[in-house]
Each structure stands twice: as C-alpha cells, then as structure tokens.
Amino acid sequence: MTRSLFKGNFWSADILSTIGYDSIIQHLNNGRKNCKEFEDFLKERAAIEERYGRDLLSLSKKKPCGQSEINTLKRALEVFKQQVDNVAQCHIQLAQSLREEARKMEEFREKQKLQRKKTELVMDAIHKQKSLQFKKTMDAKKNYEQKCRDKDEAEQAVNRSANLVNQKQQEKLFVKLATSKTAVEDSDKAYMLHVSTLDKVREEWQSEHIKACEVFEAQECERINFFRNALWLHVNQLSQQCVTSDEMYEKVRKSLEMCSIQKDIEYFVNQRKTGQIPPAPIMYENFYSPQRNAAPPGKATGPNLARRGPLPIPKSSPDDPDYALVNDYSLLYQ
C-alpha cells in the first residue's frame, strides 16, 4: 500500500472551504460509478455468452451438417457436432461465472458505500458545526468592533465637551463613555470566547478531515485493487474459454486426421455397388433382317427362362378329326 497522500494534499486556506474534501468525495463517487459500469458490462457480456451458447446448441441440434456422410468422415462429423455442443455449454457456463463476478462487484460497491457513509456523516456534522461557529465568531467580531467604535465616539464627545459649562451634559457624556467601555469589555470577552471555540472546532475538523482522508485513501486503494483483480480474472476467464474451445476443436482435428478418403470410397462401393458388367454396344439392325426379332438393343441375349417354350408336337395323326391343316397352318381344337 502506498504512503498516505490524501491527508497532505487536500486543504484550503479558506476555513469555510470544503474544496479538498469535495474533490475526494467526487473522485470516490466516480470510482463507484466505474465499478457499476464494469458490473453492468459483465452482466451484458454474460447475456451475450449465454445467448451465443444457446444459439449454438440450437444450431447443432436443428441444422443438418453432412448427415448423409459415411464411414470415417461420418465419425469425424459426429465428433464435430459433439464438440460444438460442448463449446456451447462452455459459453453458457462462462455466462454463469460472469454473473457471479458481477454479483461480487455489486457487493463490494455496497460494502464501500456503507463504510463511507459513516465517515461522511461525521464530516457533514463537523462542517456544519464549523460553519455555524465561524458565523457566530464573525457576528461577535462585528459586535465587538461596533462597541469599540461607540466607545471611541463617546471619548471624542467627552473631549469635545471639556470646555462646556453645562455640568449635567458632561455627566451624561461620562456615563455614556463608561457604559461604552463596559460594552467593549463584554463584547471583547464574547468575541475572544467565540474565537477560542472556533479554534477548538477547527482543530476537531482538521483531525476528522485527516481521519477521513486516511479512510478514503484506504478505500480507494482497496477499490483499485479489487477492480484490477476483477478485470484480470475476467480476461483470464475469456482466455480459458478460448483454450477450452481449442482443446475441443483439437479433438475434431484429430478425428479428421483419422479420415481415409480411400476407405470411404471403398466403403461406398461395397455398400452401394450395382454390378460390374456394363451394357452391350448398340448395334445397327436392318428392318428386313431375319434376326430383327432378336433381343432389343442394350438387353442381354442369353436364354430367357420366363418365355414360353416351343409348341409340342401333336400326338394325333393328320387324319385325326381334332387335327387339321389349313394352308400349311396347324389348327388344334380343344
């Protein structure tokens, strides 16, 4: 912790001035505002991280990504989808951590606010007391000075009336002078008493001001340290998120290294092959050729067991009434 600097650098020659104290308070208020801004930043960043994580989960679950791939590349894609889910979960967990850090910042702000309140109440009271006593002292001074002027006028009046024959008028002037001297003595005592009281109030105010400076400087040191550590932790969390994501993506890279183009091609051929014989050439056919009724172009010319075989030779003779020839055609009657 640095040596105390506040108590030696925030004074003013004007006894009524609170410019030094006000400057410190303004700085502390700004520091508190800065903590609140960082707290809000953490909350917003947490919302972004959670939204991103949930959107990433939704994308992974709903959006197809190479779903018809096969064999080794299919396995790599499965690893990829799983790691995307893991990365999404990491972002959601980071959001929770950021909200926790924001909560700690809020608690720290409120703790310092309560600590400051006690000192501020004491300082506000002593400032009012100092201002009030200063006013009383100045009023006593004005009264004292007026009484002195009254006495001086009374003395001058007595001196001017030294040659007067009217004894009664002279006696009145002497009575007035005596009364003014008494008033001066009384006002002088009152003035000195107020000055003494003001000096005690001033000493008490200076003592409290020094205490307040020490308290406020300690608070500011604590705030700067807390803020610095909170920011350090925040960037560490972000860095760890990157490292964790990279470790997950490294698993995808390793699964991709296991992919084999040859194996995937062979797997596809073995699973989906349709045959190894290509179609026969398409040949020219003369319409009048005896072989015109041969197999259609592109079709196999081998035996077709599904076709009906040759007609059976009739067992009955040509003389059989059920058998007859018409223009060389055989007719069967069933």
UniProtKB/TrEMBL annotation:
One of its GO terms (cellular component) is plasma membrane. GO terms for biological process: actin filament polymerization. Gene3D superfamilies: Arfaptin homology (AH) domain/BAR domain. Residues 4-264 form the F-BAR domain. It comes from the Eukaryota. Its main location: cytoplasm. The keyword Electron transport does not apply. One of its GO terms (molecular function) is actin filament binding. Keywords: Coiled coil, Cytoplasm, Membrane, Phosphoprotein. InterPro entries: AH/BAR_dom_sf, F_BAR_dom, FCH_dom, PSTPIP2_F-BAR. Residues 293-322 are annotated as: Disordered. Pfam families: FCH (PF00611). It is found in: Cytoplasm; Membrane. It is a peripheral membrane protein. Binds to F-actin. May be involved in regulation of the actin cytoskeleton. This is Proline-serine-threonine phosphatase-interacting protein 2. It comes from Aotus nancymaae (Ma's night monkey). The gene is PSTPIP2.
